[in-house]
Amino acid sequence: IQLQAYGGGLVHPGGSLRLSCAASGGTFIVNMMEWYRQAPGKGREMVARIWRDGRTNYADSVKGRFGISADNAKNTAYLQMHSLKPEDTAVYYCYGNIYTASRGSQDYFGQGTQVTSPA
Q: What's the rounded Cα separation, in Å, for the pair 62 and 87?
């Protein structure tokens, strides 16, 4: 199973950006996908999470500005970011809890994508 994250870039404050995270590699079921971020010198922060049944969770810092969604048919999760702030600048990572018949449910991690909103 591989997770591919993409869509990062440089956006001026107040702008919008959409990140995508696609899972691939065999037959599997995605139980949950999450975006987290890490800014220089800071710890990892959960940004948004979506479960297979559609439930979502958000960090307080992004509520009302970010939206997570998923296309189960494409095994892809999206993070739509609006009203970006300089403090949103970070490397954004996705990870998923994914079920396969051979390994059961396990966590899989994608590579990061840089989001920059300069002050």
A: 11
Query: What percent of the chain has pLDDT above 90?
Result: 96
**HSE-CB for 22 with a 13 A CA cutoff:** 8
- Taking Cα atoms as reference points, which of 83, 82, 74, 86 lies closest to residue 21? 74
What is the token pair recorded at 113? 């994508």
pLDDT tens track for 36-73: 999 989 999 999 999 999 999 999 999 999 999 999 89
